[in-house]
Automatic annotation (TrEMBL):
It is an enzyme of class 4 (lyase). Its cofactor is pyridoxal 5'-phosphate. SUPFAM superfamilies: Tryptophan synthase beta subunit-like PLP-dependent enzymes. This is Threonine ammonia-lyase. The keyword Heme does not apply. Gene3D superfamilies: 3.30.70.260, 3.40.50.1100.
Length: 406
């Protein structure tokens, strides 16, 4: 398709880059030796988590704000995440009144953070769609300019500056792996990347829970369950403008399991020593889940955001340890007599494992009255280490049922 027939052009992205220069960070694109060795691809990571609001969304928000005509009364957006913070931060910096509509039940920390950045927060609606509907109504009532999180050409062009920077810093990338929710980021990146290098491969990534863009482009019905740790791309209705660009310029869209996203979050944290949210980790999740698609290629991926709920992060870490065999649950059957518990703990100490949790069951269960059960959650170096503990306990006369905790 002729670029002129698409909603945005490469020149739009370059114009956005000039417009926002100095007000957003030109984040680094760094090579990861360890992740490259693990995946078999030559991986370069774009650290958008280093933006002030810890997400790329600032780029499109600022490009849109800088394009407003003089005398604009204020702006409004519907978001409970990174778009809200990008609008709030840059609108406040520019002296533009901002209103953010969030669904009722939005976590307090997100509301507080957005208010701290200078926006008025209105809680309305049971979900994002209801909040968006009310935001449009409030925009009409109060004469505010609505800024869509992805289906806006200026927002799309602003997000495309991510890809422009990646290819300026690492010109010979042959593949870009980009998360997709509504499609704003990948539309902008694909537009500029294909202009610079028509042969570059653009792979979009969605969670299996929200595969709306893949369903739209590929004509599929994938029945996502709408429960995802990748909240930043939890979108059921992709943009009208963005889907045009995706259909024309994106080579493939893949979906990634929730467990793979969790594993990617933990891998990035442990290897790169940075925190990413689910949407920020999903590109690595795709490379881990489909290694044959990326092996031997020079791959750029966007760590798009780092705003993850602390409890979700803690759960992801613990579940990751369990998947690796570093956490295990042991159910130990023993005679109910003095010294039995001490013998178990002595074996654990000898093997060098660490007890995280212990439960002793006498009253419940179907075992003999002369026996008791103990449940241990232990930390080990790896699964082989955990199995050495199981073997030692069995050699000590105990019956052991072993299971990873997830």
């Amino acid at each position: 398709m002729d670029e002129q027939l698409l909603p945005i052009s490469a020149q739009d992205v370059r114009n956005a880059a000039e417009r926002i220069k100095g007000a957003v960070i030109h984040t680094p694109t760094n090579h990861s030796k360890t992740l490259s060795a693990i995946t078999g691809a030559d991986l370069y990571l774009k650290f958008e988590i280093f933006q002030f609001t810890a997400a790329y969304k600032e780029r499109g928000a600022l490009n849109r704000l800088l394009s407003l005509p003089q005398g604009t009364k204020g702006v409004i957006a519907a978001s409970a995440g990174n778009h809200a913070q990008g609008i709030s931060y840059h609108a406040g910096r520019l002296g533009i009144p901002a209103t953010i509509v969030m669904p009722e039940g939005t976590p307090f920390n997100k509301v507080k953070r957005t208010e701290e950045l200078g926006a008025r927060v209105v809680l309305k609606g049971s979900d994002f769609e209801a909040a968006t509907k009310f935001a449009y109504e409030l925009a009409n009532t109060e004469n505010l300019t609505f800024i869509h999180p992805f289906d806006d050409t200026l927002v799309m062009a602003g997000q495309g500056t991510v890809g422009l920077e990646m290819l300026e810093d690492v010109p010979d990338l042959d593949t870009l792996v980009v998360p997709i929710g509504g499609g704003g980021l990948i539309s902008g990146i694909a537009t500029i990347a294909k202009s610079i290098n028509p042969n570059i491969r653009i792979v979009g990534v969605q969670t299996e829970a929200f595969p709306a863009m893949k369903e739209t482009i590929d004509g599929l019905s994938l029945d996502g369950n709408n429960i995802s740790i990748a909240e930043g791309i939890a979108v059921n209705n992709p943009g009208e403008k963005t889907r045009v660009v995706v259909k024309e310029l994106v080579d493939e869209i893949v979906t990634v399991t929730e467990r793979q996203i969790e594993a990617a979050i933990v891998a990035i944290m442990e290897i790169e020593k940075v925190i990413v949210e689910g949407a920020g980790a999903i590109s690595l999740g795709a490379v881990m889940q489909y290694p044959e698609k990326f092996e031997g290629r020079k791959v750029g991926m966007v760590l798009s955001g780092g705003n993850i709920d602390s409890r979700l992060l803690a759960s992801a870490i613990m579940r990751g340890m369990a998947r690796d065999g570093r956490l295990a649950r042991l159910r130990i059957t023993m005679m109910d007599q003095p010294g039995a518990l001490a013998k178990v703990t002595a074996i654990v100490a000898t093997v060098g494992a660490n007890v995280i949790e212990m439960r002793h069951h006498r009253e419940f269960g179907a075992i003999s009255l002369k026996q008791t059960e103990m449940e241990l959650v232990i930390e080990a170096k790896d699964q082989e280490h955990a199995m050495r503990l199981v073997t030692a306990l069995e050699a000590g006369g105990f019956k052991v049922d072993y299971a990873k905790t997830v």
